[in-house]
User: Fold these one by one.
Assistant:
Number 1:
Amino acid sequence: MLWRSAQPRTCRTADWRAFAFVFLGVLAVGCVMIYLFIVLIDPYGVVPFSLPLDRRIVSTHQRYMFPQIVRSGHFDSLILGTSTSRLIDPERLDRAFHVRFANLAMSGATAWEQKAMLDFFLHTAGPPKVLVVGIDGAWCNPKADGERESIYGFPDWLYDDDPWNDYFYFFNSEALITAVRLVGLQLGWYRERARFDGYAVFVPPEPTYDLARAQKNIGTREPSPNPLPPPLPADERSRMSFPALVWLDASLARLPADSRKVLAFMPVHVAAQPTPGTYRAELEAECKTRIMAIGRDRGATVIDWRIASPLTTENKNYWDRLHYRVPVATRVADQLAGAVLEGRQSDDGTYVILAP
Amino acid sequence: MLFQSQFYVLIFLPAVAALYYLCAGSAVKRQWVLIAASLVFYAWWDVRFVVLPVGQIVLTWLLALAHERSKSRALLIAGIALNLLSLGTFKYLDFILGSIESATGLVLPRAHLILPIGISFFSFQLISYLIDRMRGQAPIYPLRPFALFVLLYPHLIAGPIVRHNELVPQFALDPRRDGLWRRIGIGLVVFTLGFAKKVLLADKLGSIVDPLFAQAQTHALNLGEAWSGTLAFSFQLFLDFSAYTEMAIGSALIFGLILPENFRRPYLATDIRDFWRRWHITLSNFLRDYVYIPLGGSRNGVSRYLLATLVTMGVCGLWHGAGWTYVAWGFWHGLGLAVCHGWQRLDRPMPKVAGWAVTMLFVLAGWVLFRASSFGVAGSLLLSLLGVHGSGHVEAIPLLAAAALVSALVPSAHEIIDGFRLPFRAVAVAGGLLAICCLLEVGRGAPVNFIYFQF
């Protein structure tokens, strides 16, 4: 028996010494072997010495995989945002804008993480020909400064110039799994998880769409207060603070005039939009006003799909309250191109061009 | 520095242990090694923080020394006041100002002081020493072991709260004495279990708890969400805090030092008194010896007992945080203890299962109060738990089930120290592999602070 024996057996010091040595030996040897494996495979294509492998996007952890897309130098334009922008196909925008887009939107990305990605792109690939920022709650979060990192963690070490410091950060489960997948990819046992322009369909396949299930996922909108309270006074709205908008403004200010800038409020279902009459609605309205002002100041096109419209009120367009379906993404990409390149207004009220 | 960081496990702990055992032949040298390591460990957050514990230690020791020479109790009272003043200033000043503001309508300025980490723990240890001196139960120690008793890094930040007479005599013992490899082997096992509880369970539960309690501030949760959040927080709090304790006890054991037990599977308690004999044991003992018994305890009539219990638990709540919800949580438990005491005097014991169920429901309701940001949110959550705000499904059932099993089945640190007799190598291999898994997991992002650091 491992635990208290009915008749205690005396253990010699040697037994305990062996126990401690085996424990420490497994720990030390295991750590060294795993570390060497990860470093040799180099799952993020970043360290100076590694095996020459075909490195593709084999992980859905965008924060870790995307820096190599930027470093590749294949792309001159980018899409930022959260999962609400992930389904915008860069190839569709490539054809319209005649540029090479990468979709670098990250699931659950905070505004700070998006800003870090933009800074990295600017530093590594130079000013983009076209920048599309998919706007949602992250940019309007009053606590954005205190909530810079999402629950996924942000590997800032992958976003600097120093390939040597990356050696300090390779010992983690994410790198190990990605390294194993890369080996699997070489052996034909594993497939890539996203195209090398960052695009991947993360929602289930279209043929499996189930409206009843989607309706359950979408839920209902929070009811409006009854009676509706009066709008907040102007001075109270002016006191609202959106730290992320300061970063957005500063980032856009760094772009040259010939970079085309697009700020797009992405179309979440109306159930996920703030209910009129609530403080959240006032907060969002003020945030939109300020983003419009930033757009005007920085020469950006501001387009708003985050409104009650035939698109956002129809449950059949959504998997859940945040994520629209792939055909909707195609529509949004086309509408975005039309709005930016031709100033085309929506004929069914699906979106509104707020600026310029 | 955090116990569950790769730097601590792979560099700091091995380096300090190596240096410590190189100096093992000299009590003076090895104590200095631990003092230096503790200061580095504490200064890792903010080097300015070091001034406060060092200042409180030196002043407390000087006052105790002066008392030894003059026998003036006023010096000890001054020492207690000094430590309370420090604790009060850094932890409670803004709370007191806010409460005065609410009561009077006056607009008062705020200090906005940074709360030095671990201040409640080291202040209480110094106060306990001074009270023991008043009672004639504490000698004058040389400054070095006295400072090490407070600073010793495994317990400095979040306990266990250690008494001087539990720790100082151990500093004189040669760490290479009999049982060296057993202590190191078991220290590794206990540390690794705590490590795993923290990074594989408690932090995962946190990702359920935080959004749900944040949501509860803006709208009422449904039944499923409320139970998910409450159960997840109950397990998170226990696993997080007991994990810290186990990592502290494991680290200390590697240095040949034994820290006291802090948890004994509290969610198996069958009544609320039993719960407090299993939950944060060193704090319970501290409050019993320095607050409850001096207030009269249970041997001076019912009204005195009720007063002593409620005041003690109110202090317990306030110790956890500068907020009225914490005080209310303390009174809630005080009330529970009083009712439990009364019931037990009736000599009509409840069936064990019923006792366990009642106790857990009581404790869960208390955790809602403890975690909620305000009484309004707590009230809304309690109503949600009763299903007033609609139904819904409990989330993350596998994770909650794993947390429940670990909470119920994994022995406490001292159960392992006392009961682990046969060092099978398969256990060592499993322990080493588990430690590797934890190291790989914490390498994924910034380590998450322990909940009790804020107290």
Note: Chain A is about 40% helix and 10% strand.
Number 2:
Amino acid sequence: MTSFKWLTIVACVSVLALGVTACGSDDASSGGGDDLSGTIRIDGSSTVAPLSEAAAELFQEEQPGVKVTVGTSGTGGGFEKFCAGEIDISDASRPIEEDEIAACEKNGISFEEVQVANDALSVVVNPENPVECMTVEQVSQIWDKGSTVDSWGDVKGLEADIGDESMALYGPGTDSGTFDYFTEAINGEEGVTRSNYNNIGEDDNGVINGVAGDPWALGYVPYSFVEESAGKVKPLQIENPESGECVAPTLATVQDASYVPLGRGLFVYPSGEALQKQEVLDFLTFYIAENDPITEAATFIPMTEAQKEAAQQKVNSLVEG
Amino acid sequence: MAALGPQAERTRLAAAGARSVTRAAILSGQPLKDVIKGRIFFALLLLALGLSLLGLAALILDAVIDGRSMLSLDLLTNSASRISPETAGYANAIYGTILLIGGVLVMTVPIGIGSAIYLEEYADRTKWWNRVVELNIQNLAAVPSIVYGILGLAFIVRGPLDLGFILFAGSITLSLLVLPTVIIAAREAIRAVPPSIREGSFALGATRWQTVRRQVLPAAIPGIATGVILAVSRAAGETAPLLLVGAATFVTFDPTVFGDNGYTALPVMIFNNAKQAQPEFHVLAAAGIVVMLAVILLMNSFAIWLRNRYEQRW
Amino acid sequence: MEARDAIGASRAIGAGGGPSRSLQAPSPRYGEKAIEAVLGLCALLSVVTTTAIVISLLEPSIEFFGQVSLKDFLFGTAWAPTFTPPEFGVLPIVLATVVTSFWGLLVAIPLGLGAAIYLSEYASPRVRKTIKPTLEVLAGVPTVAIGFFALFFLRPLLEDLLPFLPWSGPQAAGVAGLAVGLMIVPIIASLSEDAMSAVPMGLREAAYGLGATKMRVATRVVLPAALSGIVASIVLATSRAVGETMIVLLAAGASPNLTVGFTESVQTMTAFIGQTATGDIATGTVTYYTIFAVGLLLFVMTLVLNMISIRLVRRFHEAYD
């Protein structure tokens, strides 16, 4: 036989073997306990997805009969599917907007905004940079629309004197919830920003890599990327507008709300219809109750007890209402 | 006395080169400058091929090096994991990709070859509508993959076909995406069959379809196989349209073609892993690329065997 | 095999010395007509697909142009649909598409054709049987992989090779273009090689018989004979380069700069569509409709390009035998 005939046979056998092993990897459903079954469809923001994925994985360990899938079509795409009744829970890195609320009402989909974690948007610089703390005003000087800040010397009132080193700026995609939140918190209105900076697009790792590679670069990213960067970048402390103290983005400062204005909550939106299914209700309760291991796996900041209670309240009201 | 050292070495090499070229020129009867031009041309061709292969090698090596700590057979049997990426695998994604590609093959091969046969053998090229179809197919090859995703969402998942977010809908979307490639390659392959073959067949009383089926198609199989290989490879590696059409990025069970429990594909998972903050996921993504390449190679092997078997030079 | 049977059959008919037969087919050959209809339907599918694409793009585009003037769209030089206030000048992203495709083709055409000529004219059959499939593996590499390869391998490599260029961030138009080129090499190489292999040996032998060198045979005889297939492969490769989404999104970035610089970060039309469609923008807003307007523009641009190329190919098509 020719060598390619052998190759074909090997190929077919390996595909078959693959199929068998793939089937074999299916979780065997263990009996006993109150076994649920069903499907839960989650979709939406890719920022919140890691949390939902961790929740799904841990939940499926307890309830192997329930199939949970998580998609990342974006917050907008998620809400569109959600308001069309195609998915059960929508991951959202921004609050639901008017048009989306109208679409949900038109299709009779009731929902609630349920918090699942906290996040700290961090302004990061290279570890070699001597600056430690900035005010909101200074950050706005750099990022506001029409800003002419080109070098570190242009920023007024910095604690350290860097002189004329030119400042390279990195920011995440302008279609993301991160962008919306940052521009509103810093510049006062969503979408207001300077336009000449490096927009790294899809992958937030691009901000980390860009800032790590340039001693005079500055960027902003969600907390998980800073935490996981293992010292490649340094998060700046932001001066709290009320207390005047420089506050670093940590678990404690976000939970006690002293890291403002860049601390934010992350939310999911379950629908009333979906909550009629026992497995969805159990899943959400699980999501809130097991908040600590879930946020640790996804490198986010856990909720406080008060936030957990409020979230559970919202779920309960949606089930009853 | 001849000097020793690098100067002498260079002279020796130059003399040897000149000797070989002159010998080749005399023996082949060609003018010297043609022999030189020929050699330079050959070197350039090798350079072109070498650079392409070098690019591919660099890609593979880069992925292998980045992913080496996770390269094991566990990748093929374990499911995705957010909690413990060190033991995560791509089992469900591989299965999803194989099912997707199976669907693409089943749809594009008959429809692609059928369209190509019609356009080359049956269509009257002076009629304007046939020219429109030609232009159409060529244009469809340039439509970005994400627009096929939009199309899939509007017409296949919802809209008239209303299939929902099932794997089959993903297959259809991908098939539409790569169909122009198959058609264009198949057309060229059919066009390359010398007309004398067809005329001989007609002269012996065969119908048009008999000619196509018995003479033209077998002769065109190598080119068609190339088109199918390129098309299926592309479909297997696409991420963007699948995301829009409902592929999930986290699935821990094996999908089914028509089931609506959800599905995922290898490139979607690789992309998702690469975007994560945790560096373990980056390693996992690199390992996934290696897995993907292995799957592609396996998939292409059958078509390549087919192509080699039917190859002939006129 | 079939030809031999046919010859045998016709000899039998001739030898039988039967009555003179009419040249008409004995039956209306409905089977033939049915087959032709089925095949025609296959071809029609492409028209259906295009219609569907145009429909799905047209309606939201009409909504879009109800709010944004066509002149601003086509001739504006600032692209910022997600900013406040939004700007909808499409020139930066069109230029980015042109520039990246240009670099891609600049790499792919010489490499692809060179490889094709080598494989078809110079390589031994065994070498050809190994190398051609190896090149085709390149076509199967997921575009996300090539994108990350461009970002983490090509970009540092090029900075080392060409340090005199004004490198800034990690994303660069030229690097993305080169990566796109690498991706489309197998399209040009494989399809051109098929076209060249299909040129009848008789042509080559005649040329050799007249004393032509191998190089001359390859470039003056085989290449022109295979031109139709080669041009088709280049047109297909161009289409692929223009429509590529992931590589440019990752490696060229998302900053819509109006520039032709090799080292500048730019956003192509496809990158914009890809990012925004999976981002957090609410569906149903003007910002969301920009996706469709840009998609429609891309469709029209490639249509015009293809019309021109078809005309050119028809003029240069040579038929042998």
Note: The two ends of chain A are 71 Å apart (CA to CA).
Number 3:
Amino acid sequence: MDFAQAFWILLLGSLLGLELIGKVPPTLHTPLMSGANAISGITMLAALTLIIQAKNNLPLLLIGSISLGFALFNVVGGFFVTDRMLAMFNRKPSKNSKLK
Amino acid sequence: MNITLIQSLINLLSVLFLALGIKGLSKVRSAREANRLAAFAMFLSVVGLLFYYLGTNGITQQSWLWIIVGSFIGSLFGAILAKKVPMTSMPETVALFNGCGGMSSLLVALGVVFFQKNQSLIQDLSISVSIFVGAITFSGSIIAMAKLQGWLSTPSWTQNKVRHLINISIAIISLVAFINLIQSPDSSNIWLLVISSTILGIGVTLPIGGADMPVVISLLNSYSGIAAAAAGFVVESQLLIVAGAMVGAAGLILTQVMCKGMNRSLISVLFGGTLASKSEKSSSGGEYTNITSCSVEECALTLEAANKVIIVPGYGLAVAQAQHTLREVAKILEQNDIDVCYAIHPVAGRMPGHMNVLLAEADVPYEQLKEMDIVNPDFPAADVVLVLGANDVVNPQAKSDKNSPLYGMPVLDVQEARTVFVIKRGMSAGYSGIKNDLFDLPNTSMVFGDAKKVLSELMTELKDLGIGAK
């Protein structure tokens, strides 16, 4: 990978990130943080690459595997927890309408 | 078709979905689908990567074994924790997940630097960044989690000004190790950087008070994005660089938004210490002089005669797991044609938006939750305000006392209501550790007790009064 090209990607990615979130209602601060946190577990790709390139280097396989475990803990847990939070907002106020 | 081309297309699609996911997460209507879209994008990126290697160099059986073991264990624990953890401890859970993301980047960098030779200069640079940011993210997040869980309190020595000197010295040591590592990646430089950045993460997070912790978690979340981007440079993955940069930048914006909600600047959160340590110097300390306490029965009688009731829930309510009981009490009041709504301070609970999540769990209708700016003009018209486990967010000092460390923080004007009941376990101070002037006001009555117990007693009293029976 070309050095300059990599930095272009970094720059454009950062600019995109800055633009993505504008006004967020306070209700969504916690879920948004949790969702973004799950995405930051994308390092799992780095861990995967490490394991695949390790061939038969045992210590490297081990480190890669532990790293992959940590990353997936972050990703899977993060997305599940975010979904749990958001599921509560989607619930329709059916019980309330029965009251009135 | 060319394998590299197919992988590039898959990666492009993943980036697009991730971006749409983050965007969608900032709107209530699309949030849940957006979260799933982001999860799908992550899955797609893994498929793309595996596909590429299967089509080119192949993946050895041993690699498969380690991939399966690592991902199985990680996913299993992640899923179990995500299902089991109570909604009240959401902030510390996010902190824990975040710390593990940082740990993952750190381990990748260590793996490459120790066991893969022939690195280029850029790789050495990005390995250093990955180690530095990864270690800070990990240790900082773990400290944040421990403090939120209550396993760790703020040691008083950390409030001393000397801490800045210590942190700066550690930062300089990290910097030296960082530069040395780029020049010669030998193991002593690596370990020096690992250890010094870990200590730096602890040193910076430890003096920060619990009330500011959400901002810190959000900032650390942004760091873990940067760590991921750095790991992307290490393994030369464009997708990783884009995604990491995107999360890093978006996290920074979110941190800023949260700071604004709390009327704090990022600098004062990071370097200001806890609010309580400042209050000792201000004039606002001192004893309560005019506390009125009252029984649950009196509270019920006043509620029965009311037309408009505003409920102010705080973290104490969540700790007592009383949100469901609260909903029951509110239902009884509604049946008696009493207007009920909930005033939600932007930082109620322990994280912005945390209280909305907790109340939604108890089936409180979304329309009854009112944000601070909308509900504040309603307080003078309210007959009764019930403050449940909230403290700092209803402290009138924030508007009246210029010497108070809370001064300038947006608060709910509960004192404008005719009667205020504060349900609280004792007279202890809130998160900020500051005395609350509200408790001394003549229209405020304290109902002492655990929120859940008081609320269920209140429910019995209300039923005895015959309301809610219709």
Note: Residues 92-100 of chain A have pLDDT under 50 and may be disordered.
Number 4:
Amino acid sequence: MNTQFKKGALEMCVLSQLVGGDKYGYELTERISGEMSIASGTLYPILRRLKEEDYVTTYLQESESGPARKYYQLTDKGRQYQTQVRQEWEEFIKAVNELIKE
Amino acid sequence: MKKMEYLEKLREKLETFGKELQEEILEDYREHFAEGEKQGKSEEEIIDELGNIEEMIQEMIQDLPESDAEGVSWEEQPEKSFTYSEAFREVVLKGGVAKVMVSQSEDDQLHVNYENNGSVSSQLKYEFCQRQENGIYYAEVKRRENVEDSKEDGDELIKLKLFGRTIISYGNASNFGKENHSIVLTVKLPKGMPKLNTTVSSGDIHVSKLHLEEYSATSASGDINVSEAEIGHMEIHTASGDVNVNDGTLHKGKFTTASGNINVANSQISAGSLTTASGNISVKEGSTGVVKYATASGNIMLNTSGESYECGTASGNIKIKSVGTPQKASMNTASGNVQFNLENATGVEATVKTMSGNAKVAWKDETRITAKKGTFRYGDGACKVMIKSVSGNINVQCV
């Protein structure tokens, strides 16, 4: 798959995963790699970039066992962006479906 | 490869990104290991899950060069077909760059076929849309909204955008114009369809073997070709595209072009007007009723049996060869020359007037007159001719 394309899609998946509530890195990557075959490691740079663009913020929270977890939380900006990107995605998919089906 | 080894390799690879970033990503990976181990996974399993470090590094390199899109494979169904049995009262086709072909259906159904056999760029750029509204069928070959042209280092690219960023960029957009005819919209109209409306930009229109009450067509640079059609009212407008009508029967025709030529052959036009700015008008082998012809710099060449001619040009020449006896012929020009040949006319009453040109009138082999102005009557005087010019020459010949 085209790298840029994949990047955009993954970004949207990550953001969408956070709509329902905050998640820590491992939880997020497990969820996504459970659906598609990707190297979980590639999601960390995406998360970092989303943070840099103020779409998400992070905070640390102690877990019952083991070290603290870094949680990712959607910002208002991120929430708006997710809505917009999701709409674009759906329009795009519609166009693609239109093209590939008889 | 064990955890420590893997993390060490990661540290190495991240070195170029700076200390802060290196530590941040390493921390993410450490946390991932810790969580995985808590789930009871082995180091190998977690390493496998985290995947190739190189792949992650690629992800870190933002704004990948556009050439990255070279691996695109855009699988597209190049053809779509639709059939409708509704009785539409009008069909509206917007072809854009596509070639539009319209003919009569063999049955009572409307058949629509869209074909895009162009390159990847043409498939990326254009899409087919259709809808029905108030008994009207609309089809359109549209440019995708999220596609744009751009120029980089002199290369023309088309870009497909998603999430505000380019996901596919494709070169050789400059070749596109040459292959736009690989997009074809073919429509077969059911019998009795009264109205057709076609619009194109650079694509050509071909309409053949149709019976319509009304047909209107508009084009920018595409040619409009109508053959073997019987049309009640036909209106055509083009900018640089030509208008070609062959073997047609038009009760009323109105053609307007800017620089395109108007060519009518072997057709019957009962009434109407043919107008162009710099294009030429040519009508041959057919019959014309009461028709007006006008150009600025273009020439008018008629070779028909006509009922009434009304021609006007600024600098264009007028050359008419008419068979039979027209009722009326009036011609006006500034600097253009006028040549009017009447074949087998029963008689003529010619009024000519020129400022600085010469006027010649000849009746069979009997009389030849040269004058600046005057009215000359021969035979039964049935054809009333009125020709005026400023500097152009006038020549009326009856044989």
Note: Residues 48 and 64 of chain A are 25 Å apart (CA to CA).
